[in-house]
């Protein structure tokens, strides 16, 4: 295999894809190197271990969601309805166009009982998602109702991602977003 230079971000993007499609435990350092066009030892110039790649992959996706999606809830120039529509649109675009589902949802099921560090990052991701939705929904609902509705939407979204991947159909997944948007009618 030819040796090529690659960035830490390229390694993360390839790793994320492999972890989502094959699972964390079914993805080896050799698989990651192959996906990046590298020899296995080259990965160690950027990461000490697969666990480090796993944690950095979780953080990478979490940062994307915080910056590009969750931040919508805190924009003062949009109405609650506009925020929710944009929020749902971006969540839907991400998952509909992302083979393998939700990395954090997948790894929550696969690794959280064995890896406390992963579990903490995954919990933070879902807490941030819940908090952002809660902020939007508090425009119409009490704090407790907004919390409960945000938890419900996240659970429905995660289940719908699983079903969309299982059956290869996005229509039912998209209905979840439509349902949450209707809460502000």
UniProtKB/TrEMBL annotation:
It holds the Pfam family TetR_C_13_2. The keyword RNA-binding does not apply. InterPro entries: Homeodomain-like_sf (IPR009057), HTH_TetR (IPR001647), Tet_transcr_reg_TetR-rel_C_sf (IPR036271), YxaF_TetR_C (IPR054156). It comes from the Bacteria. GO terms for molecular function: DNA binding. Keywords: DNA-binding, Transcription, Transcription regulation. Residues 28-47 bind DNA. Residues 5-65 form the HTH tetR-type domain. Signal peptide: none annotated. PANTHER family: HTH-TYPE TRANSCRIPTIONAL REGULATOR YJDC, TRANSCRIPTIONAL REGULATORY PROTEIN. This is Transcriptional regulator, TetR/AcrR family. It comes from Malaciobacter molluscorum LMG 25693.
């Amino acid at each position: 295999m030819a040796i090529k230079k690659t960035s830490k971000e390229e390694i993360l993007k390839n790793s994320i894809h492999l972890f989502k499609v094959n699972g964390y435990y079914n993805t080896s350092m050799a698989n990651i190197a192959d996906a990046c066009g590298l020899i296995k030892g080259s990965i160690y110039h950027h990461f000490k271990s697969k666990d480090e790649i796993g944690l950095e992959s979780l953080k990478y996706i979490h940062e994307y969601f915080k910056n590009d999606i969750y931040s919508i809830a805190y924009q003062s120039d949009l109405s609650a309805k506009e925020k929710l529509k944009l929020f749902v649109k971006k969540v839907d675009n991400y998952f509909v166009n992302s083979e393998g589902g939700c990395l954090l949802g997948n790894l929550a099921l696969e690794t959280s009982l064995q890896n406390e560090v992963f579990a903490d990052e995954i919990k933070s991701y879902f807490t941030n998602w819940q908090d952002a939705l809660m902020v939007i929904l508090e425009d119409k609902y009490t704090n407790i109702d907004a919390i409960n509705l945000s938890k419900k939407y996240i659970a429905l979204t995660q289940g719908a991602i699983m079903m969309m991947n299982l059956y290869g159909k996005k229509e039912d997944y998209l209905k979840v977003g439509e349902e949450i948007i209707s809460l502000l009618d």
